[in-house]
Amino acid sequence: xxxxxxxxxxxxxxxxxxxxxxxxxxxxxxxxxxxxxxxxxxxxxxxxxxxxxxxxxxxxxxxxxxxxxxxxxxxxxxxxxxxxxxxxxxxxxxxxxxxxxxxxxxxxxxxxxxxxxxxxxxxxxxx
Length: 127
Ligand SMILES: [Zn+2]
What we know:
Blueprint: E1 6-14, H1 20-24, E2 28-31, E3 42-48, H2 51-60, E4 71-78, E5 84-91, H3 101-113, E6 116-119, H4 120-125
Parallel strand pairs: 3-5
Antiparallel strand pairs: 1-4, 2-6, 4-5
Bound molecules: zinc ion (ZN).
Zinc ion binds next to helix 3.
């Protein structure tokens, strides 16, 4: 069995909608210095039936629990082929409101898959 060697570039991208810190000082998108802005990657979506299942999966994957977790993503680079693979973990859209938290979370995590990350410093100095 051949094993694919992957390197994790960006460990976790958590979205904490409703967090007072995020509302008061919103981060700005910027290309991740370790990834750059990607034009393409292999995108894999891991759908969950509920937020509880999503949180349980995150905990089982050794990821730190976060109150209000709505989704997360992990981007990896295959060091042999230089190709990127991004896994997005979110709750299914069925029954969700259009442009609601689930939709926002999905779009947010996909942007991480294209190599964007949060720039908290830019947000603090932005006028
Ligand atoms: Zn994020």
